[in-house]
Design goal:
Number of domains: 2
Helix content: 10-25%
Number of strands: 19
Distance between the termini: 42 Å
CATH topology of the largest domain: Rossmann fold
CATH superfamily of the largest domain: Probable inorganic polyphosphate/atp-NAD kinase, domain 1
Low-confidence stretches: none
Structural class: alpha+beta
Order of helices and strands: EHEHEHEEHEEEEEEEHEEEEEEEH
Strand order of the largest sheet: 8-7-18-15-10-11
Shape: elongated
Number of helices: 6
CATH class of the largest domain: Alpha Beta
CATH architecture of the largest domain: 3-Layer(aba) Sandwich
Mean pLDDT: 92
Largest sheet: 6 strands, antiparallel
């Protein structure tokens, strides 16, 4: 694919991101590349510009990337992250590599890798459902701010998996398996696989720690008992839920396409490198 128009999504509260945005705009002007820029959280503006954009480049950390990915999932535009955060599992390059990466995009020296995302909805007991939502990393059903566990009845398709007394439950994509799911004891999956990872958070006396299910299956979590409970979507949006509500999660049919510049580290090498950056 010939890249003629690039969009830049950035974190407007990060001075480094603002500086990188100006560097990117200057490079594009010098090399005859059409470009535009918008804060990653401005979904309506992003969606409008993405209708006529070849690649979206995200300038920031994983949080910024996840906000932009929400809109990309709806528009099917390839996405590439330039890391400005502490670790940046979702990024394919660092800030000092900006210009070489843009050169590779202009030259067509890159590969598109498909990543499975998630779609969820809340089936509210006695109330009208409020629509579906999309997550690249994970959908979490968890207790609220009070330190009280929730009781969750979890099923996969028509099969009952377990009733968990826990802080919550993470349903993650392969891409999200390096995040909250991993912290809760789940496995790391190859990001190009198509599976859902179901992992309880601090489960009390639970024999089941984590399971991996196929993308054709639906994971349903019913809130049996809770003082306060919520659904967290990629850690960027929280929705209150009530006892009796069911959170339904499945694989999003259309994948999100990641741009992998030529020469980028393979995932398992990248994982090792990023993990070494984590505080011990």
């Amino acid at each position: 694919m010939t890249v003629r128009r690039i969009g830049f999504a950035y974190n407007p509260t990060n001075e480094d991101a603002l500086e990188l945005r100006e560097r990117a705009a200057g490079w594009c002007r010098m090399h005859g590349m059409e470009q535009w820029a918008s804060p990653a959280g401005e979904a309506a503006d992003l969606a409008e510009e993405l209708r006529h954009t070849d690649v979206l480049v995200v300038l920031g950390g994983d949080g910024t990337f996840l906000r932009a990915a929400q809109t990309v999932a709806e528009t099917d535009v390839p996405i590439l992250g330039i890391n400005l955060g502490k670790v940046g599992f979702l990024s394919m390059a660092e800030a000092h590599e900006l210009e070489p990466v843009l050169e590779k995009l202009q030259a067509g020296s890159y590969t598109l890798r498909e990543r499975m995302a998630l779609t969820g909805r809340i089936l509210q007991a006695g109330r009208t459902p409020d629509g579906s939502f999309t997550a690249l990393n994970d959908i979490v059903v968890a207790r609220g701010s009070l330190a009280r566990v929730v009781r969750l009845d979890v099923s996969i398709d028509e099969s009952h998996l377990a009733t968990f007394v826990a802080d919550g439950l993470v349903v993650s994509s392969p891409t999200g398996s390096t995040g909250y799911s991993f912290s809760a004891g789940g496995p790391i999956l190859d990001p190009q696989s198509r599976n859902l990872v179901v992992t309880p958070i601090a489960g009390y006396l639970s024999a089941i720690r984590s399971v991996v299910v196929s993308p054709s299956q639906v994971v349903r979590t019913r809130v049996i008992d809770a003082h306060e409970a919520l659904v967290s979507i990629d850690g960027r949006e929280d929705r209150r839920i009530e006892v009796g509500d069911v959170v339904e999660v499945r694989a999003l049919e259309r994948p999100i396409r990641f741009v992998e510049p030529a020469g980028a580290l393979p995932f398992w090498d990248l994982l090792r490198t990023k993990v070494e950056l984590l505080p011990s």
